[in-house]
Amino acid sequence: MTTPKHVAVYYTGGTIGMQQTPAGLAPAANLASLAAPIFQEYSHQLQCDWFICEPLIDSSAITLDNWQTWLNWIDSKAADYDGLLILHGTDTMAYSANIIALARPQLSIPVILTGAMLPLAADNSDAPLNLHTALAAFSLSGFTQTAIAFNGQLWPAIGSSKISTERAEAFANPQFGTLAQWSATDGWFNTNLPVGTPPAAPVRYSISSSARIHCFTLTPGANLDMITASLTHNPPDGVVLQSYGNGNTPADAGFLAAIRHLDQQSIPVLNISQVLQGCTSAVYAQGHELRTAGIINGGRCNLETALAILTLAASNHWNKEQIENLLHQQHLL
């Protein structure tokens, strides 16, 4: 008889456990009892211990301090469990998945995040399928990644985004695709799991609550002046620039001067494409002056991944070379 895997379940809040209040939906603390029938179906495979975040939050209210608290929880449980399940609101789930994957890259156990578009207690809720997908993921042999389980899909954390507020298919990973698909009738299929690598020494990166990362999206018109003024008069600890196409921007003298000034101050500017399946690269002459101004090529980074990288870079004092090495390690370049 196979010994059940020991899984720690961390309920942070989010729609999956919400109940109606006079002000609208809000997180409630009784999710474990509501979800008990679903978890019972896996009792022969998984022994699950519940932990409740205090306070429970709507994920749109997440802070850098919350992330550090959750990383501390992961550190306190990883050695004693075969896997970690984090129940999270969908609004910022992809951001949290990216920060966990990058801040704790060698846990040697799977970390699965899931949530729901409708509360578990609601009619026609997507929560049961998402919980089934997440719990079934712990049966995947040799799987040790951080991933999002949603609507019968297992998405790698790096590169994932929330793509819908209207449909159960709320997440996707345009760059790296799905790791596997699950259904109640077929189990896991279309698996594309990473090949296992020898365990490395554990790496733990912290998050500073004072890290200030500014994110700007280029649009035609006057917003370039606003971006330039912000970079000049309110320099942050790092900048994510969502540029056009393959990383192109207007060759505006003031804007380029602001980028050069940040580079001289060793403030990283990570240039990513605003296209869902975009890749910044040295293709067009239009982007040449920006590249020579000192930006870092973000390659296939999406916004969630780029923000996580620069938050960790600012918190742990990484230089440009360390950021570029991480981009290579994550196959983003």
From TrEMBL:
Any Gene Ontology biological process: amino acid metabolic process
L-asparaginase N-terminal domain segment(s): 6-189
Record: residues binding substrate: 59, 90-91
Domain Asparaginase/glutaminase C-terminal: 212-326
Gene Ontology MF annotations: asparaginase activity
Transmembrane segment boundaries: none
Active site: 15, 90
PANTHER family, alphabetized: 60 KDA LYSOPHOSPHOLIPASE (PTHR11707:SF28), L-ASPARAGINASE (PTHR11707)
Protein name as annotated: L-asparaginase
Lineage: Bacteria, Pseudomonadati, Pseudomonadota, Betaproteobacteria, Neisseriales
